[in-house]
């Protein structure tokens, strides 16, 4: 159950981190190329921290951090694909 909660939270973080990183980085000369990497890094770091806090205490800390970071990458990818489909639609893909 905790893993499901972690996945849902990280998908929401991944969807929120993309427009927030675009808000901060858009318009600067070097920032436009960094929007997606910053979003992935934020979601991965959030996943590692939330994974350490939410996953079973019986697992080693390193395993909880890595699992949370991996789920953070998945959440970031879902956010990127979701926004791509919202902006371009199925026909634009």
Short account of what is shown:
The chain contains 3 helices and no strands. The protein has 93 residues and is mainly α. The chain has one domain (2-16, 40-92).
Give an overview of the whole structure.
The chain has 93 residues and is mainly alpha-helical. The protein has one domain. Helix content is 82%, strand content 0%. The chain has three helices and no strands. The relative contact order is 0.20.
Q: Unreliable runs, pLDDT <50, ≥5 residues?
A: none
Radius of gyration: 14 Å
Helix percent reads over 70%
Number of domains: 1
Task: Provide the succession of SSEs.
Answer: HHH
Q: Count the E strands.
A: 0
The total of helices stands at 3
Shape field: globular
Mean pLDDT: 90
Largest sheet: none
Helix/strand class:
mainly alpha
- Quaternary structure classification: single chain
Distance between the termini: 34 Å
Percentage of residues in DSSP E strands: under 5%
Question: What is the topological layout?
Answer:
Elements: H1 2-25, H2 35-54, H3 61-92
Helix pairs in contact: 1-2, 1-3, 2-3
Question: Key features?
Answer:
mainly alpha; single chain; 3 helices; 93 residues; globular
């Amino acid at each position: 159950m905790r893993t499901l909660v972690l996945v849902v939270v990280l998908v929401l973080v991944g969807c929120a981190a993309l427009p927030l990183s675009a808000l901060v980085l858009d318009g600067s000369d070097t920032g436009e190329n960094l929007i997606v990497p910053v979003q992935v890094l934020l979601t991965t770091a959030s996943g590692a921290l939330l994974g350490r806090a939410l996953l079973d205490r019986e697992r080693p800390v390193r395993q909880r951090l890595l699992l949370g970071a991996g789920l953070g990458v998945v959440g970031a990818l879902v956010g990127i694909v979701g926004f791509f489909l919202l902006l371009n639609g199925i026909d634009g893909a």
